[in-house]
């Protein structure tokens, strides 16, 4: 029995959207699920208790960052990432692959792994399937991601094929290197924007029988239509009894589309990053809190939201904090935005269970994209 | 009956240090008391609930900052500063005088008041006793500070005398302008480093019968010995049944000396400012959290501290957060440092009540100043 299992509760007959339960060594959580990102062992500006209170129950840690600083051996010595950062929920760690490949000229890929220079001090470092597994075992995350190569967009067919096949070989090496029974290793489907390569990648990874699968190499600059086409093509071939994770996606419109295509899990820095820019996420679209329209507004960021920020503070106050560069303002917005995505995934789940996800999606997109505008026209 | 009253509980027979209770419309609090600073309507990085939990019960707001942004009329419209910032404890607001005079060349003082340029947008602004009272009434603070002129150090006798006498005239204008019965107006003793002017200032202000007195114009660059000499000379002449407030002082060594001289109230940005620089305050002196000595340290910042940071996080983790520029690290250090000053003032109070303040002071100073060094020599 794997450390990670997925229980399918309901598939929406119209769209294929799924409601399920993700079982981990640190709790069982309803899906679709959004995972707040704690890149360096902290969800930026938010305490573990606040993440819990806003409904977050599985967070993401970044292998690349923690490998460089403070180093996985230190985290292990301190009792693992859960204990180090005082988080008793579940943790998913990525493999470091995506960050390393994003370094561009600063890294060199061979069959063995990737040599790169640290963005912190320029020192030479090496990541490979075996090193990534070792780091993730040191961190002690519940869900471990295979070390893959993220194919850039655009990429020619030959490159994409060679890379996809190497990702499979690396996935096998990850599986061999992962010796901790308390951690579940997810495979990552690649294949670029080529359907036959996506099919090949799925087949090879499913043969390796991972407890979950991520769809990688999407949201890397391709048109959204192409992304959804690839997603649909890929997800349809994934086993029904395993969770499906779309990495790095966190805008509500992308979430609802991906859920429609059968995705269960998401992570993204988007909600906390835009919060630090003074932007709030709402069902009607984004609110730029600096705008003068909020100056005298006694209402919370969003009526009906039950987050700490909306329960206690006015738009006028949050606008003041953002303008005055008070970090408490960024905390309030981070809490609100993360809570918004929890409420949003919970609403999607309810709609799936009640067989009205198609309507939910249409109404949401209409309101989210045109909501603010139509209100102005009232 | 004034909105603010002071109850003297005990005077240490050896030193004259006082334990008392400060009664405000938002609660009664033991003194000596340290007030965390919430310059712009937020104690930097710390929520109101966290301030409460760490023992803070009266915070300071800055008239200068709130006057410029968001403006006191907006705060009034939003229900006052307590409601605006979700703080149900007490609030003391300064008069704006200190900040305005600190602007140097950017301001011009006349008998009527001070014309200055905003540091935010350069626009021309005017503060006077009447304007300061109006702003502080809009803010609705429990304790209002008179609009005074802070005499720089050094200053010649003639200047100091003229300025001190104007501060008295302004104090009278403040008293006339303050019409809110729920707010207590404190006078501010000036007089520079001249004992006869200090005596004159005390006499004139005591005649105006304020519910509390601040000692102003100290800790402005003068040698510490001179500061304590002036403090001692001034405080001795203040009425016993009124609280005494030393503005802008927040290092433990200054606090213990000032308490010895009969001061009851303090405020300072020091604990939160050094926290943002990665420094922790402890009974043994300051800890620079970035230092490599903390790399593997599983201990809390300070053994025996009951703050949120010390209950849940290791020095190793906090060091990591500080090095990685994670704002959660600054929050943990801010909470710890503010809690440290609460524990410190509580310990002073206990020592006063138990008539052992003199010993407490000597032991503390010995440990605080030489503690870390002697431990290294062990």
Structure summarized in a few sentences:
The structure is a homodimer. With about 375 residues, chain A is α/β, with parallel strands linked by helices.
Description:
The structure is a homodimer of 378-residue chains. The first copy, chain A, is α/β, with parallel strands linked by helices and 378 residues long. Chain A is 43% helix and 18% strand. The first copy, chain A, is built from 15 helices and 16 strands. The first copy, chain A, has helices at 48-53, 63-68, 72-77, 81-85, 97-101, 129-139, 157-177, 195-207, 224-235, 252-260, 270-276, 308-312, 315-323, 327-353, 357-377, and strands spanning 5-11, 18-24, 27-31, 33-35, 58-61, 90-93, 107-109, 114-117, 124-127, 143-145, 184-189, 213-215, 244-246, 265-267, 279-282, 285-288. In chain A, the strands form four sheets. In chain A, strands 4-14-13-12-11-10-6-5 form an eight-stranded parallel sheet. In chain A, helix 14 (327-353) crosses helix 15 (357-377). The longest helix of chain A has 27 residues, at 327-353. Mean pLDDT of chain A is 95; it is low at 373-378. Chain A binds chain B through residues 40-47, 65, 69-70, 74, 77-78, 84-86, 295-296, 298, 312-314, 316-317, 319-321, 323-324, 326-331, and chain B through 40-47, 65, 69-70, 74, 77-78, 84-86, 295-296, 298, 312-314, 316-317, 319-321, 323-324, 326-331.
